[in-house]
Amino acid sequence: MITFQIIRILMLVGVAFIAALILTPIIVRLLEKYQLGKQIRTSDNSPIYSSLHSKKAGTLTMGGIIIWLTTLGLALLFFILNFLFDGFWSYFDFIDRGQTYLPIAAMLIAAILGLVDDLFGVLKIGPNGGGLQIRHKLIIFAVLAALGAWWFYFKLDWTALYVPFYGNVEIGWWYFPMFMFVIIATAFSANETDGLDGLLGGVSLFAFGALTAVAFILGRYDLAAFSSVVIGALLAFLWHNIYPARFFMGDTGSMALGITLGTITMLTNTVLFLPFFAVILAIESTSVIAQLTSKKIFKKKIFLSTPIHHHFEALGWPETRVTMRFWIISAVMSGLGLVLFVLSQTL
């Protein structure tokens, strides 16, 4: 059984990778046809960012469509094939009410909302021609998080937090705000991390890889299969998104990845492992919050520019160096988090 599930997951990674590569030229042609290029936000409050990235203006955006359309498309395709023919296709069908309904719904809703924001940016709607402001995105994240929290708390009766090396701890109604915090944090952090070629795609790859292993260890094989499809799609996306990027992910990709990541974290009850699995996302968002707080209270900046990857760019680091080093940190910390998870399950 376990060997079969391992083979299933590896096959789904490969199928998703090939499907996404086939889908890519179709999406690129559509983006080029409608001239859906990135508009670089111009502001007196971020002169360093504007100077560093002005040359990227016009690069195709909304490439994240490749990731979520591949994932959701394969989910629907295998479900239909299994329904019509059963037998062989049941091995690929990973739609399950208890395991994948929620992350699939979360990815779809977040992707559509992100797509709207990307279109605002392309059409130069919003402050400085860059789409929705951060506070508007946070409101959207909060609404989605509240809906998810309501479902988990009132419909599924989830009220426990898993504490490593201890076990489940009943936290009662505190589960509701905790759920909201995780979803808002992952969505906001993913959005902030998506600022360099290949950065969010790479760190997401390690995070989803760790969560795939976690779901597999917990025996939630359909959830692991879903995550493995995301991994395959991410690999194909990175094929074209590494420096120099042929296209950007856009909010439709970053919002879909961030909210889905948070949803899977809640489904596997691994909130306290998330700082390991998504360490770069945590660092990026923390740098933004620290910078804004310092400027508000002390009228002084901590970093040259935020999110922190722009700080290192301003110090003179090549974009590829920042990305690769952040990937390395993600790989090491995701591996460490996975080791701690396995140990907590066995000791």
Key features?
single chain, 347 residues, mainly alpha, two-stranded antiparallel sheet, 13 helices, 69% helix, globular
Concise summary:
Helix content is 69%, strand content 2%. By secondary structure, the chain is an all-alpha fold.
Q: Could you state the order of secondary-structure elements as H and E? A: HHHHHEEHHHHHHHH
Note the gap between the termini: 24 Å
Largest sheet: 2 strands, antiparallel
What's the tally of helices? 13
Number of domains: 1
Q: How many β-strands, per DSSP?
A: 2
Residue runs with pLDDT of under 50 for 5 or more positions: none
- Kindly provide the radius of gyration, computed on alpha-carbon positions and rounded to a whole number of angstroms: 20 Å
Percent range of helical residues: 55-70%
- What value does the average pLDDT take? 92
Strand content: under 5%
Helix/strand structural class: mainly alpha
The quaternary state of the protein chains shown equals: single chain
How are strands sequenced across the largest beta sheet?
Answer: 1-2
The gross shape turns out to be globular
Give an account of the 3D structure.
The protein is mainly alpha-helical and 347 residues long. It has one domain. Helices cover 69% and strands 2% of the residues. It is built from 13 helices and two strands, in the order αααααββαααααααα. It has a two-stranded antiparallel ribbon. β1 (160-163) and β2 (167-170) form a beta hairpin.
Element layout with pairings:
Elements: H1 2-33, H2 47-53, H3 65-85, H4 101-122, H5 134-155, E1 160-163, E2 167-170, H6 175-193, H7 199-217, H8 221-241, H9 251-267, H10 274-277, H11 279-297, H12 308-314, H13 319-346
Antiparallel strand pairs: 1-2
